[in-house]
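Standup notes
- HV: blocked on the assembly model, inputs below
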Amino acid sequence: MVMGQLNQETELAIIGGGPGGYVAALRAADLGLEVTLIEEREELGGVCLTEGCIPSKTLINAVELITSAREAGAMGLSFGSIEVDREKLLAWSQKVVTTLTGGVNSLVKKRGIEVIHGRARFADNRTLAIEGAGTVEFSRAIIATGSRINELPPAYEKPVWSSAEALLLPEIPGSLLVVGGGYIGLEMGLVYAGLGSAVTMVDFNPRLLSGADFDLVEVMVKRVTDRFEAILTDSKVTGVEYGDGEFRVEIEREGETRTQTFDRVLVAIGRRPNTDDLGLENTAIEVDAGGRIPVSEELRTAEENIWAIGDVAPGPMLAHKASREGKVAAEVIAGHASAFDNRAIPAVVFTDPEIAWSGLTEREAEERGIEVAIGRFPLRALGRARTMGRTEGLVKIVAEPGSGLVLGVGMVGPHASELIAEGTLAIEMGATLEDLMVTIHPHPTLSEAVMEAAEVTAGQPIHIPPATKT
Amino acid sequence: MVYEFKLPDLGEGIREGEILKWHVAEGEAIAEDAPLVEVETDKAAVTIPSPAAGTVVRLAGAVGDIINVGDVVAVIGDGAGAPAAAAEPEAAAEAGPEVEAEIAEAAAPVPEKETPVPEPAVDAPAVVPVAGPVPAAPATRRLARELEVDINAVQGTGPGGRVTPEDVRAFAEGLVPAAGAFEIPESGEQRAEIEMAATAASAIPFLDIEPLPDFGQWGEIEEEDLRSIRRKVAHKMVTSMILVPHVAHMDEADVTLLEEFRAREKARRGPDEPKLTLLPFVMKAVAAGLKATPSFNASLDPFREKIVYKKYYNIGIAVDTGRGLIVPVVRKVDCKSISQITADLNDVADRARANELTIEDLRGGTFTITNVGPLGGTALIPTINYPEVAILGMGRAQEKPVVRDGEIVIRTILPLTLAFDHRVADGADAARFVTEMIRHLSDPSLLLLEA
């Protein structure tokens, strides 16, 4: 850094250049604020762009092609054997990442946003000390420092992979143990299984993806079970030994412990917010038990001139939630009447097939004792799904009885990650089943499943036999 | 341990009451089932007993305060715990409407910093609140925020109760009142009121409900909160007058023979026996009239588009209590003797004036009589006690010169006005009903056949 920049002043300092922070910076600059964006990494984009959503989806897409090519045999197509060039695949993935981070850099630059690289800590509620780059005095600040992979307990201090390392494709191991059956573990497990590793999944919970509705997870598990060496639920890793280039892992299940050998171990056991090394103790901000910063609907913290967004604020740790919060915080700071009052935050799991849900889930309705009407439309009754040879999956709608207000949408199937957007819009708009039913959906597409599911929920199904009693 | 006692559901769609009297003070001991507080609701005053024995840690509110169903009435401790600490959390319970706002906020997706809620696990699904926020598009919600309108207070007119931008603008301009409580009202009457309120201002041409001027500028004034019975009467009368097409049918009953009978009875009766008034005879005659013309013992349900005929004859009597007008009900008038009706009437009237009626005493009426005659007045046009179909107004019975068989004679004449709901009955029905009634009043011997 230039010596002359040792002490600077800014109207708005944003700490963290991920999908929360950089979006907040762009919006704030557009609203006429002078913005300084502070990012510890070399590139903007945060975990999402550099070691999360984007590289993982690049690899998942490649594996999907492999799967599709194999399944195309049923359509009379054969491609011979499929060779994976690990280095080229990695290069492709990294090129995608650098193209996107370059794009963010250019957007930020064109807005005249000042970017400082370095780790920022609060010296007080007006000053940030930037490691190796002096101080920044701010009128307002947004904390958007995101989260990091949960550190492994000391027993795991072996050359195990985190998801970030696994995304760099250091090798395609002969056998891989994935610890953690959440969305990251499943996505990475499927990538490596697709690339040729014999993958074993271990999860502490009785089911994989324990946060999602079981009927959705079941469809996915049925399709991918064959791709895994084993899926061990209700199980936990009780010991790991490393030597001679292999891991000897003790897995306990139903009181029985057995030892298995793996070439590699990938641990995906969640993330924690980056709030512990921020100098928050020099402000009035206190984190909660989970390390999150409590915020108001306007995303204000206990300090009236400091906002918090994204993974450091309460709620699901998702890039799209962070981006929306970034816009809200920027708008509030610019004096607009804005608030994070979103009714639904879509959750998407890029398994095969994809699982997505938004708003009220069936299980949550049950747990909270909310009376709801639920309708399911299976993709096997859909023309487009047939043409793709992908008939596994369903779309489910949770509605308020009587009014027909759409409260939740869940789905499993190809492109569920795209289709969930319509469901989320419906919830956000306060749409009713009828609104979904009378909207013309293009034929033949998967999107028709949303309309059909609305019809089933309203008791007027077209493409499935009426009154299917269970 | 402490017990937070919340105002229980008092039935009849009652959602709040005014604190009339505390039977204990903070710090005093109270036994289980001992009287705790007297609360006046829209319908009646109710004494609420303490649900537990212990020491009264805190009383929520002063005499005259309004307390909502579900709000904490009192905190009762058994002396074992730390009552002061426990009393704090429901400090907000006194706040009335603000409490609802707080509850709505607590259900919002992003918790207030004062009330952190446990955040979902890393992989947890996105959570949407269901009970709290009203359905509205994001742009509408932003509009509400810009106009500084609490969107949860706006009555949505869109499908599924969705709040539209027009709803928000109308609300901001004060054209429509708040949606009130978020729950769906139970009775047709309340539903009707709210629907009327939501649409009246915009739907009725020339209707212009403007804020009142400051009357103090022209002279001395005194203000009183519109509360309790007075407010309930206001609600009922506005609903009835706007909703129901009223028709009034007037006639006179020659009650000379009846009055002669009453005079004889009066002379015969001892000082301890109850006074025999005209009203029980009129009630008996009304029951006879209702049996002959069932339309007047009915209710029209505008939502289900049905007329509900009642096969029981429970007659409400308007009673002036000094605190306001209430209408206790005398049940099964058709099956009771004049003496029994007299006893029932005296009982409810006494209890009404002593403020001892229960809510049950005020329910289940099928027809109402208002008798202002004893206070004076030749005739009156009463307002129907909705959702009943008709009401009978009695004027003062007095001697008048009338023509009988070509000669002027003196007879005792009772002026009667039947106001009725023209949706349910027509003028001819009213004439038949009143004629049947008068036949019974003119010839008391017919009343013998009615018991």
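- HV (later): unblocked. Chain A has a mean pLDDT of 93. DSSP finds 13 helices and 21 strands in chain A.
- Next: hand off to the docking folks.
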